[in-house]
Amino acid sequence: MPLPLKNGYNFNYARIWHPPFFEMNAAEAYTDFYGLSFLTSGDCLVYSTECTTILREGDMNFAPKYRYYRSSYISDRPREHIHLKFTDNMVAGLLPILGVDNFNDYFIDHPANIHLNSQEQEFVRSILSEIELEWNSYNEYSEILLKGLLHKLIIFCLKEHYIGEIEPMPDPQKNVCLFNAIEYIKAHLQESPSLKETADYANISASYLSKIFISHLHTPYSAFLLNEKILLAQKLLASSELTMEEIARQTGFSSNTYFSDCFKRVTGSTPLQFRRSYK
User: Fold this and answer.
1) What is the pLDDT confidence band of residue 15, given thresholds at 50, 70 and 90?
2) For the chain, which end, N or C, has fewer CB atoms within 10 Å of the first or last residue's CB respectively?
3) 16, pLDDT greater than 90
4) Contact 3, 31 (CB under 8 A)
5) Which residues have C-beta within 8 Å of that of residue 136, sequence separation ≥ 6?
6) Dihedral, CA of residue 55, residue 58, residue 64 and residue 70, to nearest 10
7) What DSSP string runs through 226-263?
8) What letter would DSSP give residue 191?
9) 120 has pLDDT over 70
């Protein structure tokens, strides 16, 4: 799950390893930050609301804000990727160069997945090594230095403009229904909207909406709803002083105990452990 950035931070670096046959339980959202992932080994299949993409070793993937993703395996190889998260503040200086008002707009006309040859991969690895060193010795000057390295990395990758292996959506109307459903879910998490209630809002049948979630995100409606609740809970735990009971109520859980059980099942830690790690 793409965790929120720590308070006071506009950037995060992580090296993530997944065992063979690993797949995400449900589609997850990048909310108020962007993601940039470099696959250092292995391969995977990524589902999103826009397309289905195959990523292989040496591929760079940009995750715009407010997009949903779910990754799965396509072979028995373990996979490792270096993952960067960053806010608008970190890329504001790039916008005039890219000719857009915000970073998300760039990916309307350009691919978010970039295939790099071996020489380009070595250059990217060298930049990421500098980023890792700076991140591991973070101080009051690090954000300035990390911003420069991030700009260097992004400019190098985006100017390549390679087109990835993308499977177009078969039916644009399904996309509209899916976006409407997600909009309704996010606005009514506290009420735990049912599949039928969400389908009524999207003006389609419940069975059809269920099929759209499976075909586009390979995620059942119930799993998607739970993940949205946990994502909101993480943001509240990291950025507020609300009690566990208040957070459970705001995220649509019937009790604090049920909230804690679900949170630990999805994230691997209790809400209190998560809050402590972010404080």
Assistant:
1) very high
2) C
3) yes
4) no
5) none
6) 30
7) HHHHHHHHHHHHHH----HHHHHHHTT-S-HHHHHHHH
8) G
9) yes
Token pair for residue 196?
Answer: 């039928």
The one-letter code for the residue type at 134 is: E
What does the radius of gyration of the chain's CA atoms come to, in whole angstroms?
19
Q: Please say if the pLDDT value at position 41 is more than 90.
A: yes
Provide mean pLDDT across the span 125-143.
96
Answer for the pair 218, 194: CB distance below 8 angstroms, yes or no: no
In terms of pLDDT, which residue wins out, 57 or 69? 57
Two tokens, residue 109: 């006309």
| Phi–psi pair at 255, nearest 5 degrees | -155, 160
**DSSP 8-state secondary structure symbol assigned to residue 92:** G
Neighbours of 147 (CB within 10 A): 19
Record the pTM: 0.77
Q: How far is the CA of 186 from the CAs of 31, 54, 192, 250, 273, in angstroms?
A: 11, 28, 10, 12, 25
Q: Please say whether the beta carbons of 186 and 228 come within 8 A.
A: yes
- Say how many C-beta atoms besides its own lie within 10 A of residue 37's C-beta: 23
What is the side-by-side order of every strand in the sheet holding 113-115?
11-18, 79-86, 34-41, 59-63, 113-115
CA 155/CA 152 separation, integer angstroms: 5
Listed in sequence order, the DSSP H helices in the chain are 88-91, 95-98, 103-109, 118-136, 142-158, 172-187, 195-202, 206-217, 221-239, 244-250, 256-267, 271-278
Assess contact for 54 and 163: CB atoms under 8 A.
no
pLDDT in tens, 240-279: 899 999 999 999 999 999 999 999 998 889 999 999 887 6
Average pLDDT for the chain: 88
Amino acid letter, residue 260: S
* Token output for 167: 């499977």
